């Protein structure tokens, strides 16, 4: 199984290009993903992971993701090779995004919410205003 789940900050705005053969949109960006632990006396390190998003997902990422924003990406690892003009072989490992999400909390005083403006006010997992737990006795577990 090839499944990757990442959460990190964009190191730059997504870069958009189109394939030569069928004009498909491709968005590329890099995530700075903090390592879980830091050695004593050292700063926490980050890994910089290249992400590629195709078609509609690439369009979404290019439109709403900005440098410094925290996002979540689910996808698969892919490696590829190519030869440059001088005949040198290049290798790259990247994550092909299958899902992408906003991971920042809403900033204070920020009335804009790209998700709500695009997809309506009910976010995934939103229970609605009529859901309320009055005590722990109400919970089924």
Give a description of the structure.
The chain is mainly β and 141 residues long. It has a single domain, classed as Nucleic acid-binding proteins (OB fold (Dihydrolipoamide Acetyltransferase, E2P)). Helix content is 11%, strand content 41%. The protein is built from 2 helices and 6 strands. The protein has helices spanning 55-64, 114-119; strands at residues 4-10, 15-18, 25-34, 46-54, 70-83, 89-102. The chain has a 5-stranded mixed β-barrel. A hairpin with a 6-residue loop joins strand 2 (15-18) and strand 3 (25-34). It is globular. The model is unreliable at 113-136 (pLDDT under 50).
Helical percentage: 10-25%
User: Major sheet: order of its strands?
Assistant: 1-3-4-6-5
User: Which fold name fills CATH's third level, the topology?
Assistant: OB fold (Dihydrolipoamide Acetyltransferase, E2P)
Helix-strand sequence:
EEEEHEEH
* Helix/sheet category: mainly beta
DSSP strand tally: 6
- Going by CATH, the homologous superfamily would be Nucleic acid-binding proteins
Number of domains: 1
Distance between the termini: 32 Å
Rg, rounded, reads 19 Å
**CATH class designation:** Mainly Beta
User: Main β-sheet, in a few words?
Assistant: 5 strands, mixed, barrel
In the CATH classification, which architecture applies?
A: Beta Barrel
What's the overall average pLDDT, rounded? 82
Percent in strands: 35-45%
Shape estimate: globular
| Total of helices | 2
Give the low-pLDDT segments: 113-136
């Amino acid at each position: 199984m090839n499944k990757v789940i990442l959460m990190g900050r964009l190191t730059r705005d997504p870069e958009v290009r189109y394939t030569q053969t069928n004009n498909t949109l491709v968005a590329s960006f890099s995530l700075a993903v903090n390592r879980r632990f830091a050695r004593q006396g050292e700063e926490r390190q980050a890994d910089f992971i290249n992400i590629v998003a195709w078609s509609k997902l690439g369009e979404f990422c290019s439109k709403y993701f900005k440098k410094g924003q925290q996002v979540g990406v689910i996808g698969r690892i892919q490696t590829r090779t190519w030869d440059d003009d001088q005949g040198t072989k290049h290798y790259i490992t990247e994550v092909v995004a299958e899902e992408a999400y906003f991971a920042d909390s809403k900033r204070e005083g920020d009335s804009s919410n790209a998700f709500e403006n695009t997809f309506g006010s009910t976010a995934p997992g939103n229970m609605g205003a009529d859901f309320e737990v009055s005590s722990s006795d109400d919970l089924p577990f």
